[in-house]
Amino acid sequence: MKAKSKKLEIVYEDQWLIVVDKPSGLLSMSTGKKGDVTAYSILNEYCRVFIVHRLDRDTSGLLVFAKDQDTKLALQENWDEAVQERKYLATLEGNIEDEEGWVESWLYESPKSMKVHSFALCEGDTPERPPRKGWQFASTHCITLRRFSLEGQAYTNVEFELETGRKNQIRSHSEWIGHPIAGDKKYGAQTNPFGRLALHAHRLSFIHPWTGKVMKFTSPLPKSLKI
Questions:
Q1: Which pLDDT band holds residue 3 (cuts at 50, 70, 90)?
Q2: pLDDT at 7 over 90
Q3: pLDDT at 2 (0 to 100)
Q4: Which residue, of 99, 180, 187, 201, has the fewest CB within 10 Å?
Q5: Dihedrals phi, psi of 28, to nearest 5 degrees
């Protein structure tokens, strides 16, 4: 199935779930605005689906929907345990010197700006005991893939792997280390060489809730993010 205007593609389907490749610019689900076209609304014209997790509007890549309430709950309630791999590709502003590393922080979403802020861990902090109400521990693994220059601006291609799956985790961590994702004005980016947020959900593997099989999926980097 492919929606002509948004090119939402089903990459896998069985009797319990659907995995799709979502384009940048398409909401995962409605914000409440009447007439919103979303991945959810497009799929519901094909068959009834239930939200399992989300991608930001401007993030492209792999997204999972359930076909029934039991599958939705089975995936959501055990998501962190079921997911074996979550990898994203991104282009960050600036030249990142490290070849590999971890970013760990507390995340907090401001109710006014709806922006997720990062705060440093202090000695004695543990993921299970946040120092303030509403703070969440977040951990991201980063690998530098390529450094390049475009119109005098330095950029770095990075692969991110999520150890935790918090809202806007990669975007907040990128800003926090001083290298925001290209095109991410909300999180400090000064450039937009691709005309979109340079973030793509590239690889996803998880344990199927009913068969127990490890499901592995890869979405290639879209042409809009290639140089």
A1: very low
A2: no
A3: 46
A4: 99
A5: -70, -45
As beta bridge partners, residue 204 has 86, 217
Check: CB of residue 115 under 8 Å from CB of residue 186.
Answer: yes
**In this predicted model, what pLDDT tens digit does every residue of 132-176 receive, in sequence order?**
888 999 999 999 999 999 999 999 999 999 999 899 999 999 999
Read off the DSSP letter of residue 3.
-
Would you name the residues annotated as active-site residues? 56
Joined together, the tokens standing for residue 178 give: 């001083």
**How much is the pLDDT for 129?**
84
Buried b (16+ CB within 10 A) or exposed e, 129-167: ebeeeebbbbbbebebeeeeeeeeeebbbbbbbbbeebe
Residues pairing with 64 in the sheet: 19
Rounded distance, CA 99 to CA 146, Å?
Answer: 9
C-alpha to C-alpha distances, 211 to 76, 124, 177, 208, nearest whole angstrom? 16, 41, 40, 6
Give the span between the Cα atoms of 80 and 206, in whole angstroms.
Answer: 9
Distances (CA, A) of 218 to 18, 64, 103: 14, 13, 24
In angstroms, the CA 58 to CA 43 distance is 18
Cα Rg, the chain, nearest whole Å: 18
Is the overall model pTM greater than 0.90, yes or no?
Answer: yes
Provide the 10 A C-beta neighbour count for residue 77: 11
pLDDT tens digits for 78-120?
A: 888 999 999 999 999 999 999 999 999 999 999 988 899 999 9
